[in-house]
């Protein structure tokens, strides 16, 4: 579950009075907006990553590692286009502590 606020998918979480985004709502928000996702990396370091899944910004993703389950998705991680590195990056969904819609980048 993910903390979130702001428009679109974030509003769905707010309407539930939980301020929590599901993985699918996070994907929806990232497909519509640039966001800052704050999460704890595997090594314990905290990272604030400006990222998106907007089709007009991201290049085609070429998988370098094998798929994890029968649906072709690893439900524990999410691959996103990192705006400050201009590369595909991923994070563990359960390690996300906040998501904020990015106004300008």
Q: How would you describe this structure to a colleague?
A:
The protein has 105 residues and is of the alpha+beta class. The chain is 16% helix and 36% strand. It has two helices and seven strands. The protein has helices at 9-15, 23-32, and strands at 2-5, 20-21, 34-40, 46-52, 77-82, 87-92, 96-101. Strands 2-1-7-3-4-5-6 form a seven-stranded mixed beta sheet. α1 (9-15) runs antiparallel to α2 (23-32). The longest helix is centred in the first third of the chain and has 10 residues, at 23-32. It is globular. The model has no long low-confidence stretch (mean pLDDT 80).
Q: In percent terms, what proportion of residues is strand?
A: 35-45%
Tell me the strand order in the biggest sheet: 2-1-7-3-4-5-6
Report, as a whole number of angstroms, the end-to-end distance: 26 Å
Low-confidence parts lasting 5 or more residues at pLDDT below 50? none
Largest sheet: 7 strands, mixed
What is the global morphology?
Answer: globular
Q: What is the arithmetic mean of pLDDT?
A: 80
Oligomer classification:
single chain
Helix amount: 10-25%
- Beta strands, count: 7
Radius of gyration: 13 Å
Decide which structural class fits the backbone.
alpha+beta
Task: Write a brief structural summary.
This protein is of the alpha+beta class and 105 residues long. It contains two helices and seven strands. The chain is globular and about 35 Å long.
């Amino acid at each position: 579950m993910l903390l979130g606020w702001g428009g679109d998918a974030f509003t769905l979480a707010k309407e539930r009075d939980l301020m929590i985004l599901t993985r699918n709502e996070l994907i929806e928000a990232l497909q519509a907006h640039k966001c800052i996702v704050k999460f704890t990396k595997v090594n314990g370091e905290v990272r604030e990553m400006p990222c998106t899944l907007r089709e007009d910004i991201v290049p085609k993703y070429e998988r370098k590692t094998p798929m994890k389950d029968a649906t072709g998705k690893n439900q524990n991680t999410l691959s996103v286009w990192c705006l400050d590195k201009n590369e595909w990056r991923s994070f563990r969904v359960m390690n996300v502590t906040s998501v904020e819609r990015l106004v300008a980048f």
